[in-house]
TrEMBL record:
Residues 6-125 form the VOC domain. The keyword Oxidoreductase applies. The lineage of its organism: Bacteria, Bacillati, Bacillota, Bacilli, Bacillales. Gene3D superfamilies: 2,3-Dihydroxybiphenyl 1,2-Dioxygenase, domain 1. GO terms for molecular function: dioxygenase activity. Keywords: Dioxygenase, Oxidoreductase. It comes from the Bacteria. This is Glyoxalase/bleomycin resistance protein/dioxygenase. It comes from Evansella cellulosilytica (strain ATCC 21833 / DSM 2522 / FERM P-1141 / JCM 9156 / N-4) (Bacillus cellulosilyticus). Pfam families: Glyoxalase (PF00903).
Amino acid sequence: MRDKNKVFHLAIPCKSLDETVDFYEKLGCQLARRYDDRVTFNFFGDQVVCHLNPDKIDTKPKMYPRHFGITFTKKEEFDQCLTLAEERCLPFFQEPMMRFEGRQEEHETFFLIDPSNNLLEFKYYQDTSMVY
């Protein structure tokens, strides 16, 4: 298990700092720092840095293999995130669905797409032993 003194870090490209800040703040992520070439967020307790790099934007994003996100261990938190995304009209790449239905690894999931075509997955496993 991860100790609280460790934070996962992910760096991704973005095409516009203003659009990026708007999206991630609507998602509930706190803006930690802003520079001329990047913004850093508290992304559900981890660090996501969006570097201004409009030439590196994926114009045809696909869910697999390139995405990132959060796996919730509490159903209420998953539902709250989904409700927030819907209420704030965040763009869905994949509407909420159930994967591997009837199997031990069954989980609820949805994907959002940020303004720079980065794909974010949010999921919840009823059986928390299947998280890893």
